[in-house]
Design brief:
By secondary structure, this protein is an alpha/beta fold. It contains 9 helices and 15 strands. It has a 7-stranded mixed sheet. Strands 10, 11, 12, 13, 14 and 15 form a 6-stranded antiparallel sheet that branches. It is elongated, with a radius of gyration of 23 Å.
């Protein structure tokens, strides 16, 4: 099989999905169609906003479909007309069986973890929150249950001590792009070996999941050790953002989002906030943390030194 014979339909929406599509195009793969979400009104003017994948696909003159109903007969006909023998899904929606079962080779997904670890919607966040030393990316065949299909290839990525979900996202995006190309090259060579996740799970003592993270889950608990709190804050940075309450002058209580911290040796009552040498220090269960990047409700994100010039801590 050559690259023209491999008729790929690519499905994705956010920035994370742009890099693998670009990598496929740069490597000469035959993308016969791109599926992404419909344009949505956004901002004060409610102007229609296109997904990052659509913006890139349009720049390359690719055939784009934006179905609102993946189960509709109209979309079914449009997809079959593309005659794909492989579908690639990166950060898209859950697919109905008649969609993912259509291509002869199959429909594969890129997941930002080393499956079967961290199945779910937020694998990047949870890997940092849990203090993992490494994670990775996985390509696997889509089946009925989310993130359970047979594994094709994996690549490991080291998690640094100061890693945030944002920096890890970018590393996994690049590594995942390379893995998508490797997976497609494997199909070109006629190799379709895959490994059952069931067999892998039997060898894992501590299987971790990656459920969706909601706003209520993002409140900082200063009664934890500094390392735990740091991982929690960095695992939610830059999105959705860990937060706490801070008392300003006249006991005006405001929400403060925290994006980056550094561990300090000072000790004190957990949750107590102090300004020391133009630095914002919060005590934890064992030591303390210096908040280095913050955002007060209604304000822009900024370095703590800039933040302290504009407010008075109560």
């Amino acid at each position: 099989m050559n690259k023209d014979d491999l008729r790929i339909v690519y499905m994705g929406t956010p920035d994370f999905a742009v890099a693998p599509l670009k990598k496929l195009i740069d490597n000469g793969f035959n993308i016969v169609g791109v599926i992404t979400v419909a344009d949505k009104p956004a901002g004060r003017g409610q102007k229609l906003r296109q997904s990052p994948v659509k913006v890139y696909a349009e720049s390359k003159g690719l055939n784009i479909l934006q179905p609102t109903n993946l189960k509709s007969d109209e979309f079914d006909g449009q997809l079959k007309a593309l005659n794909p023998n492989l579908q690639i899904v990166v950060a898209f929606r859950m697919l109905p069986e008649k969609v993912w079962s259509l291509p002869k080779i199959g429909t594969i997904n890129l997941h930002a973890s080393l499956l079967p670890q961290y199945r779910g919607a937020a694998p990047i966040n949870w890997a940092v929150i849990n203090g993992e030393k490494e994670t990775g990316v996985t390509t696997f065949f889509i089946e009925k249950q989310i993130d359970t299909g047979e594994i094709i290839l994996q690549k490991k990525v080291k998690i640094e001590s100061d890693e945030t979900a944002g920096t890890l996202h970018d590393k996994l995006m690049e590594t995942g792009s390379e893995l998508i190309v490797e997976t497609c090259n494997k199909f070109l060579e006629g190799k379709s070996e895959s490994v059952s996740q069931i067999n892998l799970i039997q060898k894992i003592d501590d299987l971790k999941s990656a459920p969706k993270i909601f706003k209520a889950d993002c409140k900082i608990d200063w009664n934890q050790p500094s390392e735990v709190v740091k991982n929690f804050i960095h695992g939610l940075s830059p999105y959705p953002g860990a937060f706490c309450k801070i008392a300003l002058a006249n006991n005006n209580l405001k929400t403060l989002k925290v994006f980056n911290v550094e561990i300090e040796s000072k000790t004190g009552d957990p949750g107590k906030i102090e300004v020391v040498d133009n630095r914002l220090i919060v005590y934890t269960a064992d030591t303390s943390l210096a908040l280095t990047l913050v955002q007060l409700e209604g304000k822009k994100r900024m370095a703590t030194s800039d933040f302290l010039r504009g407010v008075e801590i109560g």
